[in-house]
Amino acid sequence: MKDTQRNRQAPTGPLFSFGIIADCQYADIPDMTTFADRRFRLSLQKLRHVAEFFNAKDLQFVVHLGDAIDQDISSFDTIMPVFGRMRAPVLHVLGNHDFSATGGTGQIDRHEVLRKLGLDHPYYSSIVMGWRFIVVDGNEVGVIEYPEGSKEYAKGKALLETLIRAGRVNAQTWNGALGQEQVDWLMSELEEAEKSGQQVVIFSHQSIYPKHRENILNDEELLPRLARYKNLKAFINGHNHDGNYGQYGHLHCVTMHGMVDTAENAYALAHVHDDRIEIEGYGRELSRTLRL
Ligand SMILES: [Fe+2]
Q1: In CATH, what number is assigned to the domain containing residue 162?
Q2: Which end of the chain is more exposed for a tag (fewer CB within 10 A), N or C?
Q3: Is residue 1 part of a domain?
């Protein structure tokens, strides 16, 4: 009898929804056919399609999980206007390729990359309908964001060398770490969210779990600290274009598929409910239910 009554209840809609894209990685260069099938030019059409699709939905925001471009700072001038067409605000995450933006000068200009992405700061948070969405910069310490010869580059190289000696599989030049100041900020965001009764999702370019060669450099140090916060529900990232998933304690760690790979698109909607986040995948992206 009870079951019958329950079945008669009308299904309830989500509290709110948002759009997810990872690794658009646009550039006006020939396709890669060697170690991956990357269609750099095609990303422009793929992103235009996604903008139209998202604009027909009621979304609180869209997140792009980094690597808006593959290379050359002028690529931003082609791809950013497509993000600009989206009705919902777009949260941009900094990816490693966003700094392959030499524009022929051979120099990385960190401030120029942030300006092109419309970012005042490399990491930030946004509160939406009682949830806190935290964007981190996983390239902050490393050799990605800084020109060779700078003291930041030397510090990043030293960290990489230490991790290579320690045999860490993710000790790769295309990964970085969150610096101490950013980690302190992240912890204070989680504390504040906990006190305010907010649920939290972290958006990052690089992954943190399961163990993978594409993980941020300080994955092992950071993960247990993050997992102490029961209000932190998901860590969502790009970077590894093949996608991935793992659950560390209660924390869902989701790697989204890269848009740039293959002729097929990849993007998703996320529907936030009281007890779950429903990820509705399109193209190569998978659908998943994250139980809270
Ligand atoms: Fe990447």
Answers
A1: 3.60.21.10
A2: N
A3: no
Say how far apart CA 161 and CA 187 lie, in whole Å: 27
Kindly state the tokens that stand for 138.
């996983």
Tell me the two tokens of residue 223.
Answer: 């993960």
Instruction: Give the range of the structural domain holding residue 187, as residue numbers without chain letter.
Output: 14-291
Residue range 29-67, pLDDT digits in tens:
999 988 899 999 999 999 999 999 999 999 999 999 999
Q: How confident is the model at residue 106 (pLDDT cuts 50, 70, 90)?
A: low
| Rounded distance from Cα 279 to ligand 1 centre (Å) | 21
Q: What pLDDT does 17 receive? A: 98
Determine the distance separating the centroid of ligand 1 and the alpha carbon of 67, expressed in angstroms. 6
Instruction: Please state, in angstroms and as integers, the Cα–Cα distance from residue 141 to each residue in 93, 151, 155, 171, following that order.
Output: 15, 11, 7, 12
Alpha-carbon torsion (195, 238, 25, 58), positive or negative: negative
| Amino acid letter, 7 | N
- Residue 2 in any domain: the answer is no
Whole-number Å distance, alpha carbon 261 to ligand 1 midpoint, is 12
**Number of domains the chain contains:** 1
**Residue 23 Cα, ligand 1 centroid: separation in angstroms?**
7
3-class DSSP state for residue 290?
strand
Beta bridge partners of 61: 18
- Distance from the alpha carbon of residue 43 to the mean position of ligand 1, in angstroms: 15
In a domain, 176, yes or no: yes
- Ramachandran area for residue 213 (φ above 0: left; ψ -120 to 50: alpha; else beta): alpha
Kindly list the distances between the CA atom of residue 73 and the CA atoms of 115, 148, 150, in Å, as whole numbers in the listed order: 11, 18, 20
* 22 Cα to the center of ligand 1, angstroms: 9
Residue 49 lies in a domain: yes
